[in-house]
Design a protein that fits this description.
With 265 residues, chain B is mainly alpha-helical. Chain B has a single domain, classed as Cytochrome Bc1 Complex, Chain D, domain 2. Chain B has helices at residues 2-12, 16-36, 40-51, 94-104, 110-113, 126-136, 150-164, 174-178, 196-203, 219-229, 240-252, and strands at 83-85, 90-92, 183-185, 188-190, 208-210, 215-217, 234-235, 262-264. In chain C, 42% of the residues lie in helices and 1% in strands. Classes of the chains: A alpha+beta (151), B mainly alpha (265), C mainly alpha (193), D mainly beta (103). Chains B and C meet through helix 2, helix 7, strand 3, helix 10 and strand 7 of B and helix 2, strand 1, helix 3 and helix 6 of C.
Amino acid sequence: MSSMNPLRRLSLQAAAALVAGLALPLRALAAWNKEAFQAKSAADALKSLGVASSAESKDVVIEAPQIAENGAVVPIEITSNVPNTKSIALVIEKNPFPLAAKFDFAEGAAPYVKVNVKVGESSFVRVLAEAGGKFYSASKEIKVTIGGCGG
Amino acid sequence: MRLPAVFLLVFLFAAPGAFAQDSKKEIEKYQRMIADSSPAELFELQGEELWKKPQGPRKVSLERCDLGLGAGVLKGAYAQLPRYFKDADRVMDLETRLLFCMTTLQGRDRAETTRTVFGTADKPSEMEVLSAYIAGLSRGVKLAAGTTQPKEKQAYALGKQLFFHRAGPWDFSCASCHGEAGKRIRMQELPALGKPEYARPVVATWPAYRVSTSEMRTMQWRMNDCYRQMRYPEPEFASDATVAIITFLSVNARGEPYRGPGTKR
Amino acid sequence: MRAILFFAAVVLSSPAPAQDVTGVLKRDFHARGQATMDRVEQDALQRVCTEFADQPPAELAKLLEADQMKTLVFPAGSLLGDWKRGEAIAQSGRGATWLDPKNAPAGGSCYNCHQLSPQEASYGTIGPSLLRFGKLRGNGPEIQKYVYGKIYNAKAYNLCSQMPRLGQSGTLTEQQIKDLVALLLDPESPVNK
Amino acid sequence: MAEPMKIRATLKGDLCDVRVLMVHPMETGLRKDTNGAVVPAHFIQEMTVKVNGRTVIEGQISQAVSRNPVFSFRLNGVKAGDKLEIAWLDNKGERSQTETAIA
């Protein structure tokens, strides 16, 4: 592929931001990250989450149907087998606000979540797991079909 | 993103036969996953609260409502509906009977109790949440709609006739879509509801949480929305016609253990 | 022939053997939006298809198909419209229900029952696949006329077909049907690629 | 808010599968009602899962989560009788909280 991977492109932007001293301040846990959730592109959302770069990893597992009969409810099950995972973020690339959820896990909880989400149109979903200050990612395409009589 | 776009094109133009096979499997997976993470139970909880809530001019709950097994008996009651009720001298399905109890027992006005029979985000339907609760108390009980009383026989016969009756601007009958096995509308498999083997799993899982509207829906709603899409005028809620078709389907499904409320697209 | 017609006449004029379904519909249904109560009145074709469970005697079917054929109105000139608009009409399942505004253009609901463009994987199977329809049959005036007529009134060709009479019922306009003809026959249409 | 929340916690050894059902419209702010008026955004933004008073999961979610949300989580190092609390807060400041003993 000649086109640059958007995540790599993003990582360059983030690196530039770091150099310029514009990295986001650390936030108090669980205060709703308005900037990230209101971002209109996956790249902007990840930037707001402080994801500078990520590595594709088989240890991040997404279980979801490849075809959804209705985009209003699409079950997505996420497991991170990366040791010491402290958070998981779910991004639905083509949704109007791509960041769908972020979960922080403390000792006593496995880095696992299953959630039903809305997927507006056929889209890639991307999961980022954070462990040891690094991000590990996986993605999966979900096709949303037109169902029923459509009347 | 360029890469997925190219991938998508290749994917779409691949052999349609193989695609159909894979899509069937993937859709089954989708259906399994939505059933596993269904909020249907919440409606059962809400329904229980509503069942016990005093309402209407008499300020009484529905707890003395007789659904066919005696006043207040809920266990297994849904599974034996529709059936003939002597006090009303007609065959009733669950919602028709609930309406009867609301108007007689609670003394409520028919117009008020039927204002919102099919719920929306801001206006939930009493009928839908009550149905979820009551149906849930028949889980594991074999479906046994009435077949012996003359009016039950009449309802079944009328339901069967309605099922095959063609009318409306599009010349549709129920059987236009549900007459032949192995057909689909878009990706949805169409159960041939006139035959027991297809009626059984369907009737055993209504009422159902419909993900497309994120509402609990009942058989009365299913009749209503089918007739809408058949381009007919609107059937009256709890009318003899709707109860007759529901009787036809439920009798076809007799013997199947109830396992709802289900979850559907 | 005469015997069959006589039989049909008896069937159609005698009171329904079980219950009068049209009477039940009149009693238990009500008008809503554009779905007025006249919609429950059966015409002769609907009565015959109901009575014979969609398998009318061949002679009777031929006679009634000829009646339906008389409803066909063909516009002058080419019947090939714009396949791109045709694709949108084929995709849409809206129109003619009690929720649809009366004057909003309806869709044809084609994908509900037929496979057409290979790009659309979500298609129904109540009707036959129409993939490569024009590629297999060409797009001359005869086939244009057949496709237009079939969409306008499918019952002129097969009396108890499950396909709606989309033109005759007033669901689709002449231009919309031409656009659907193009979707099926235009060599540039994805159906024929 | 009296809207019910339902927790189901299934203990297997010292592992616990938790499933929670919530009643919430999860309005996106993009949907139009039958009169064509835009329905304002109304959705859960934050949720916490606590075991014996200690926070083990903190979630931030968007309007992309489906109406009547359902979540599953997995806890470890828990035993029968531990107190499980789940709470949420939405964009209008409404809250709901429920607790159960792990059995």
